[in-house]
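Summary for the lay section of the report: proteins are chains of building blocks that fold into shapes. Here we show the chain for NAD(P)-dependent oxidoreductase and then a coded description of the shape we predicted for it.
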Amino acid sequence: MLPQTFSDEADLERWLCEPSDALIEFCRSLRGRLLILGAGGKMGPTLAVRAQRAIHLANSEATVTAVSRFTNSAARTWLENHGVETYAADLLDRTHVDSLPEADHVIYLVGSKFGTRQNPSRTWAVNTIAPTYCLQRYQTQPIVALSTGNVYPLVSIDSSGSAESDSVGPIGEYANAALARERLFEYFSIENKTPVVLIRLNYAVEARYGVLVDLAIKVHSKQPIDLTQGYFNCIWQGDANDAIIRALPMATSPANVLNLTGDSVLSVRSVADRFGEYFGRDVTFIGQEATTALLNDSSLLHRHFGKPSVDLERMIGWIADWVQRDQPLLGKPTHFEVRDGGF
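The coded shape description reads as follows.
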């Protein structure tokens, strides 16, 4: 049973780490070390603990090791307190990568997006050099690599979004660097026969960050809502992490591709109005919806794994309650409204 609200951050994190029955069942057959590269970001810690809990509940002998620079020591402590082994490494340093522990399965979460406009060279380095080193280190292990829907072009708002078979068309330096990262995974998957599945995500949300949080904050603080980027997709972070782990058997050579997001196209206007109802606010809108948006069609993934367990109304209710009670936020806007690729 899903909760009505989250009492505090510990309660929120507990639910973000709660594995699905399907994930527990998958982990019954999981063996060896599951290595999570880039586990110190927004999604990594709860993904690692979710995997660890599923393994425990499945009575599996698999283990989870989380790798990050761990510039935030609190994240490392939190992981270790939840039973996850940690390993500090800079994946831009070849000697660090070569010293990483052996692994049987790899989840790759490393990426750089925000700050690209100010420092594009670092974005390209993180998104190309780090995967090259890691793919040379782990040549035979199945890899789930997190990518982004930003590799697609803007598409008609009357469509269901870009499908995996559609042409890519990245806009801006970040999106092009993300596509370069995908091409490296594809190259090494063919060259070394490394099983790979690329997960193109649009957008993960939880109560402290995400597109829905961005909209909730603006509505609650009576800021106008720009409608130009008028439509989007999103998925609850717990559901996203569940799917990422369960995608391991779908890694193939040549690389496989899967879109990951919710099961519908969402309207900025409608979502903002719904937050307005929760907050007792009249919502002010500016601009007009463009005829295109960044949209993903993840029906292929839903056919394999089923639809997400958390629907839009539940997410809106959780986030409205969280924002209204002035609970902690990560302070990391998604900038989903950006249409020129300048992050």
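Put simply, here is one thing we learned. The chain has a mean pLDDT of 96.
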